[in-house]
Amino acid sequence: MLENLQVRNYVLIDSLDIDFPAGLIIITGQTGAGKSILLGALSLALGARADAETVGPEGDHCVVEARFSAGKDAALRRLVEEHDLDWDDGRLVLRRVLSRAGRSRAFVNDTPVNLSVLQSLSSRLLDIHSQHQTRLLSDKEFQLSLLDHFAGNGERLAACAAAWSQWRRLSKEYDTVSADLQRLLLEKEFNESLFARLDAAGLREGELEELEQEQSQLSHAEQIREQFYEAASVYAPEEGPGLDASLKEIARSLERAGRFVPSAGELSSRVESCRLELDDILSEADKLSSGIEVDPQRLEAVEERMSLLYGLLKKHGCQTEGELIAVREELNNKLFDVTALEGRKESLSAEKAAAESEYRACAAALHAARAEAADSFSAALLEHLRSLELDRAAFEVRLQEAQPGVTGTDAPLFLFSATGTAPVDVAKCASGGEMSRIMLSLKAMMAQFGTMPTMVFDEIDTGVSGSAADKMGGMICRMGARMQLFAITHLPQVAAKGQAHYVVTKAVEEGSGKAVTRITGITGEDRVREIARMLSGSAITPEAMANARSLMGI
């Protein structure tokens, strides 16, 4: 239940700190006094959309804090602990701070939380029925949630939602795999051709560089051998002394001079070393020369191989054999993927069929539970409606087949007739007063057949008057005996039923000229006068006071 509400600098509320008791709490006030402002402040604490324009004139921030006692709500405790929040024996303080710049912060028991956490918690603490919520009666999801709530389908809904999620996940993966497989199959023949050619090429890194060098040698073989021959001829010509003989003569001359100049002997040794080195060089050159062959057939083979490699490089937009090898491996992987995807598709097909079967079973169980509960739901609602002076009303719930979804394959149809004949879609036939009574009856059923949080009725009695209003007040009073219930009302028949009564007023402060909204608890004669005001208007007559006492049973 809501134990306390504190508001600071919210629109016309400069400061508010008020405690609330259990049971039925009546809130009244003249039109424009600020009841909607009070409800807006409470909604802000529960996670409603923040609007910077609601920050009052007394500072740059507004603060709304609501303190709840959750009792022994095990489901709420699990939710609190899932978000690592303090349970504090079921005492939860929800606080919202809004800046004039539009920035909003939320806290639960002084721990910062995001808005989704605040909303998930507040939905289990307080339910606000606004005066326009009767429009929900035409919403199929809302209708279905009412029937499921009545039928106790919580676990069946959770199982159906999980099965639906699994089926959709597998279906999406199956579609993705199928699309990828179709694409690869279309490319398969082309990829096989490319891979076969690359694989047959026997690619090897560095081969092209070796081939280019060999091709250069083969195409210049005659010229290369001629250069080797010329080098050998200079060193050791066929006629006359060569370089070898000259170096030997130089070495001997320096050796003889060394008998007189010791350092000349060292020079002789160095010349001899040079001659031996040149001899070795020419020997190596001779070997290289002997390895150079004029081979037109080999040249042709090398050039063909180079042409093949160049062609493959150009075709695949590569610069090196390494890049070509990478292309070959990628093609090989694609061809392997076809096989793997075919296997995965077959496996997913079986998994998807099993998931669909599970979903259909869950949906069927939900349908059976809804169908079984439909007549009882209709009978219970009619009992409430007839107690609200709709004695001839007829109400029926029909289940129609709908597209599969998270809540199964049912679409409800609420049929209503105020006269008891030929009921039709409730959204098309019920008047405003009838819609208010239907909605109140539904809320009463929800409170009776399930665990409901604190409820707020914001003029749920709109369009109702006279004895029907008195009976609505009685129904609201009975609901208040089982739970904490706030009723914001303009009807004295409803206002007279509450255990606690608060009045919302708006006044202009002297001096500042500022309009301020306040809420005050009233009892005794003050409450009688408020009921009398609601009966007669601004001029409270003795007759109105007597009528007010009669309504209040005093």
Quick tags:
554 residues, alpha/beta, Rossmann fold, 6-stranded antiparallel beta sheet, 6-stranded mixed beta sheet
Task: Explain what the structure shows.
Helices cover 56% and strands 18% of the residues. Strand 10 (408-417) and strand 11 form a beta hairpin. Helix 4 packs across helix 11 and helix 7 packs antiparallel against helix 9 (262-291). It has 554 residues and is of the alpha/beta class. The chain has a six-stranded antiparallel β-sheet with strand order 2-1-4-5-6-7, covered by helices on one side. A six-stranded mixed β-sheet has the order 8-12-13-3-14-15. The protein has a three-stranded antiparallel β-sheet with strand order 9-10-11. Among the domains are: 1-125 and 453-522, P-loop containing nucleotide triphosphate hydrolases (Rossmann fold, 3-Layer(aba) Sandwich), CATH 3.40.50; 206-319, no CATH class; 523-554, no CATH class. The protein has 17 helices and 15 strands. It is elongated.
